[in-house]
Amino acid sequence: MTNQVKVRYHMVETIEYVQDTGPVTSYGIRCEEAPAADDQGVTNYYVIPDISTSSVFVEELIRKLTLHNADPVHLRDLIEDYIG
Hints:
alpha+beta; 2 helices
């Protein structure tokens, strides 16, 4: 049997405090990397907060990460590329 890792991406919401503006809602990504059913490994979680103040922007990024089955090891680089 193959030990394929299952990866899921979810949007997270945080409140950031911006001087002279006050609280601002910001969105980021939580990645869940779960081992295959036949593996006894542990689920890994990665959170990258404060990517954008636009939930639509982050939802689209998550859709693309999921569509292309993006490997979590490249997550920070992929986010930087998407923003840039």
